[in-house]
Amino acid sequence: MTLLEARNLKKRFGGVQAVAGVDLEVRAGEVVGLIGPNGAGKTTTFNLIAGALLPDEGSVRFLGRDVTRWPAHRRAHLGIARTFQIPQPLAELSVLENVLVPLARAALRRVLPLGPYRRPERIARARELLVRVGLEAHAEQPAGRLPLGMKKRLEVARALALEPRLLLLDEPLAGLTLREAEGILELIAGLREGIGVVLVEHNVRLALGVCDRAVVMDAGRVIAAGPPEAVKRDPRVIRAYLGEEADA
Ligand SMILES: Nc1ncnc2c1ncn2[C@@H]1O[C@H](COP(=O)(O)OP(=O)(O)OP(=O)(O)O)[C@@H](O)[C@H]1O
């Protein structure tokens, strides 16, 4: 089932054509890697899908509806959740409370009786989400004191609390040690059940290891798209990545 269909997206900032006609489709049950070197236009494309930016041209359809001009919060209500490259937890609150906040928001959206903020079933659900992302042992700690790798896991739990159909992950591996990154990749691989995931990542090798389909961008355009095995052998991808692969 197709969740997201973006067609011919274009976005210009002054003299820079950041996105120059991008098509992107995401189906339920797949992780799509949106890959490309620095400045390729990945973040801009991500923001056009999340609704943080509006395109100059092109369209975004989600669950069969045209959401091209919708603001981010309306898209979130319809089922598009995102994480941020730099995690922004409510630092003074505990890890558990950080998940309770979006759970209360999701209840509000579904017009369920909101009840007290800490109702037992909501706490149970928050704990389940913490188990899912491997943070159950840290539930009572202040979120601000978690190391970066765990803050990124918390971001994922907070996004999952909104019960999204599409989860957008903005460079979840940025700034992590290789070991932390491998842990997050394992977590991402387990997320795809029933939902679509878009993973923005500039490390092509790591991203290709986890995605079902890769969309590779360079200079605002899609230069290759398909299963990771095919994309890896694509001469345009090899050319765009020669420098980067040498350092990776
Ligand atoms: N708000 C903005 N104002 C001006 N130029 C921008 C803005 N956002 C992005 N750009 C420019 O658009 C181009 C694409 O940037 P974008 O951030 O989408 O690339 P990216 O692939 O996500 O790169 P990175 O991995 O470095 O984040 C770059 O040349 C960038 O400088």
Automatic annotation (TrEMBL):
Keyword DNA-binding among UniProt keywords:
no
Q: Tell me which EC number(s) this protein carries.
A: 3.6.3.17
| Sequence ranges assigned to domain ABC transporter in this UniProt record | 4-244
Q: Which EC main class describes this enzyme?
A: hydrolase
Give a Pfam family name: BCA_ABC_TP_C
CDD domains recorded: ABC_Mj1267_LivG_branched
Does the record bear Protein transport in its keywords?
A: no
Molecular function (Gene Ontology), one example: L-isoleucine transmembrane transporter activity
Alphabetic keyword roster: ATP-binding, Hydrolase, Nucleotide-binding, Transport
**A GO cellular component annotation in the UniProt record:** plasma membrane
Query: What InterPro entries has UniProt attached to this entry?
Result: AAA+_ATPase (IPR003593), ABC_AA/LPS_Transport (IPR051120), ABC_transporter-like_ATP-bd (IPR003439), BCA_ABC_TP_C (IPR032823), P-loop_NTPase (IPR027417)
The biological processes this protein is annotated with in GO are:
D-alanine transmembrane transport; L-alanine transport; L-isoleucine import across plasma membrane; L-valine import across plasma membrane
The record's section on PANTHER family has: AMINO ACID ABC TRANSPORTER ATP-BINDING PROTEIN (PTHR45772:SF7), CONSERVED COMPONENT OF ABC TRANSPORTER FOR NATURAL AMINO ACIDS-RELATED (PTHR45772)
Q: What is this protein called?
A: Monosaccharide-transporting ATPase
> What species is this protein from?
Marinithermus hydrothermalis (strain DSM 14884 / JCM 11576 / T1)
Lineage of the organism: Bacteria, Thermotogati, Deinococcota, Deinococci, Thermales
